[in-house]
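dude i think i finally got it to work??
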Amino acid sequence: MFIFAGEKGVRFEAGTTTLQTTAVTPSANPGVLSTGTLSKGLRAGETLTVTGSGALSDSFAVVGGTLNVESGTLGFHMSAAFSEVNISGGNVGDRFSAFSGSTINITGGSVDSVFIASSSSTVNISGGSVGVGFLANSGSIVNISGGSIGDAFKAASDSTVNLVGTSFILDGLELTELIVGEAFTI
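look at this
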């Protein structure tokens, strides 16, 4: 599967491009990557765990698979569609894109700047850190119960952002009218 999201000037003029399907060849992806660099993406049904000093190259894509990041590094412009990505350690490079059908669980580690949650994606953050520039696009769901988020967090209209905690400060003022167990919409 190809993921074209309109970044980097991707544009197809009408009548210029032909799409042709082909048989899927067996994958050479290891189940665990503890050393070296893997440059190909994950396909439907595949699972990969990155640990140790394992690394994924720039523009690595997960489509219909499961990626577990325990340590190691992921390159620039990582993307996931119809997949599950679990980040419990390690470092994810700039510009992570969670596309439709993906669930991203961040419990540790760090994601550099620019994280994009697209429509029909779910992002759960309970630990770790996400750098500057988080965008929850329309139709995305973002649940935050821990960890840290850098500056420039934007929740677009029709996105859902759920913050779970014991106290909240908005624009420098503590929200004192909160009642434990009851949702409060801002």
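The mean pLDDT is 88.
im so relieved honestly
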